[in-house]
Amino acid sequence: MFIPVEKSKDKTTNYERLLDTLPHYIDQKDPWYTVLSNASAIIDYFLDEINWIGFYVNEEDALYLGPFQGVAACTKIHIGHGVCGTAAEKRETVKVDDVEAFPGHITCDADSKSEIVVPLIREDVLLGVLDIDSPVLGRFDETDRDYLEKAAALIVDKI
Predict the structure, then answer these.
(1) 11: left (phi over 0), alpha (psi -120 to 50) or beta
(2) CA atoms within 13 A on the CB side of 63
(3) Residue ranges per domain, the chain?
(4) Tens digit of pLDDT for each residue in 76-111?
(5) Residue 131 pairs with which residues in a beta bridge?
(6) CA-to-CA distance for 118 and 130, rounded, in angstroms?
(7) What pLDDT shows up at residue 106?
(8) Least confident range of 23-27, 41-45, 82-86
(9) Which of 48, 111, 122, 134 has its CA 20 to 30 A from that of 70?
(10) Cross-strand partners of 133
(11) Please, what is the average pLDDT of the chain?
(12) Which residues does residue 52 pair with via DSSP β-bridges, in sequence order?
């Protein structure tokens, strides 16, 4: 049952509500795909101006498509390629204001204009990445980075 939480017009308030709500829907006893499925739905609910949100899971030499909200997407991304692969390789959040200007950008949704990717790391092991796209240029800022890294930490703790 979804905890009814009204969205705010204030981005920071929505992120606070996201961080308060997320733990109610992710449980360490659940399989990783269940945790990531609910996490993608909750994040999608609380963020505005996004067209894709999901996870890529690290499997040996590449990132493979995991649970997501949005149109069908690329199924495999090599480490170091595109925004997701770059975030995985660097093991740091990558925020791109204009995906067309990012060298090697991999287009999955032609409507995406900006993107943020947060790596999921536990004890120096790359588990995957959280990938969020927007149809708005420059959609993501430092507030997004800070709160999405906090959300990622909550998620990593449950998978």
Answers:
(1) alpha
(2) 31
(3) 11-158
(4) 999 999 999 999 999 999 999 999 898 877 777 778
(5) 54, 117
(6) 5
(7) 77
(8) 23-27
(9) 122
(10) 52, 115
(11) 92
(12) 133
